[in-house]
Amino acid sequence: MSARTGVVYLVGAGPGDPGLMTVRALELIGSADVVFYDRLIPPGALDGAREDAELVYVGKAPGRPSVPQEEIGEQLIEAARSGKSVVRLKGGDPFVFGRGGEEGEALRAAGVEFEVVPGVTAGVAATAYAGIPVTHRDDASAVAFVTGHEDPEKTESAIDWDALARFPGTLVFYMGVKRLAANAAALIEAGRDAEEPAAAIERGTMDGQRTVVATLGTLAEAVEREDVGAPALIVVGPVVQRREALAWLERRPLHGRRVVVTRARAQASGLAATLRGLGAEVVELPAIRIEPRIENDEVRSAVQKIGDYALICVTSPNGAHLLFEALGAAGFDARALGGPSRQQPGEAGAGTGGPAGTTIAAIGPGTARALASHGIAADVVPERFVAEALVEAIAGIEVSGRPVLIARAAEARDVLPDALRDRGAEVDVVTLYETVREEPSADAIEDAQNADYVTFTSSSTVRNLTEALGERFPRGARVVSIGPVTSEAARAAGLEVDVEANRHDIEGLIDALLADAPR
Ligand code: SAH
Predict the structure, then answer these.
(1) Catalytic position from the list 17, 21, 33, 38
(2) What is the CA(15)–ligand 1 centre distance, in A?
(3) What pLDDT was estimated at residue 340?
(4) pTM higher than 0.85 for the full model?
(5) Which of 168, 334, 339, 429 could cysteine-pair with 375, CB 3.0–4.6 Å?
């Protein structure tokens, strides 16, 4: 259900891991007219917002005071009254130390309707990621969420330290790092055991989550020594010890490894998500961008006679998608490939499986999958993912004197067309796209500096990234290449290749990286 106009949605965005946002939160962000958001929301949380949605930052800017609470309330009221659907997006849960209660009250007083979408609160999320169960049959039958930072204008402490010292369960302090030493002393003074296990969890569920374990008496010192920064939670209770048996985050194969992904932004997400799932911190440093080049006579004329080709070679997933885009632009679809040059049974190129028509060769499994998404089962898919392997794989197809189409990128090598011409084929080479240099952002370059790995999935990413970064290429990182052609380009660019995939596709690259990362 999409966001209703005139209504304000107080929405929790979870503790930081984008995967912990609720389905309802994503749905509302995707349909709202305006989103008011805080600083502590997950990266990419607003990616799904409508293109014409208004995105208003109301958080605290570093070194500047936050937008006063009344002002936020007024902005929400005004937006709703002007007939907009409004999402107010907050870190964690809106009603757990999120001032969602105050905003709801202001809205009700103004006669504006609101709904609340709970979020995963840091108190259970950061702890779970740290392997600390906030309750446990043997250790804690209650848990208290406590603010460690009171409203400085309050004259009397609202925290009853005696009651908290006696509380029969786990204490979870939000906003508790700055005043940790004073709060711990107050608890011990009120009778809580200084030897009780305690932990600070920094950046819970985010890249670089860190957990520091000590005792109530020593945690402040440990936090100081380890330089624990915001956001962080403090946990006090015997459950902290369960971490020894339950820690899991740190056991993931690429935990703590920073990996640079250099693929074009549009293609990076699969690789980045897989690496994150394995525990890596991913820095996306796209070195190239795909610029379609299907609006030209060469492509148009090839498309018009597409059914006449005896063989069509598609050399990348981008090529596959753009070939079908060009077909679509000319008013055709996959049926155009079953054209007049249909080979007769017994002729070379038939007998390879599916219904005969134009024989389609894909350079590798990724390209074959891209073709399949357009309803075409490739007849030929070589095991190895390089032009030479494709040349071998099509050796049995009769091409002498027959038209062959090679649909590919502008900067491709000539291995394939040369080999086919040598065999007497009438080869048309069409360029469907160009890969152009993408200038990486200063932030991403900075993040890449202490990377453990830089992954390269094509020679164009190597050339463009090394040229774009120059001296700022992270020299300490190990270079991972998808295959021999990419490795060659890396060496030509002055890099040493540390890891080369045995299978020249994304899965192969990940396998090689995993094999290299010491446990
Ligand atoms: N509404 C939020 C809490 C806001 S108060 C929620 O439900 O989680 C801000 C405090 O929450 C921070 O000072 C810190 O103590 C805690 N916090 C928020 N996100 C955190 C995270 N990812 N890791 C550790 N603590 C976090």
Answers:
(1) 38
(2) 7
(3) 53
(4) no
(5) 334
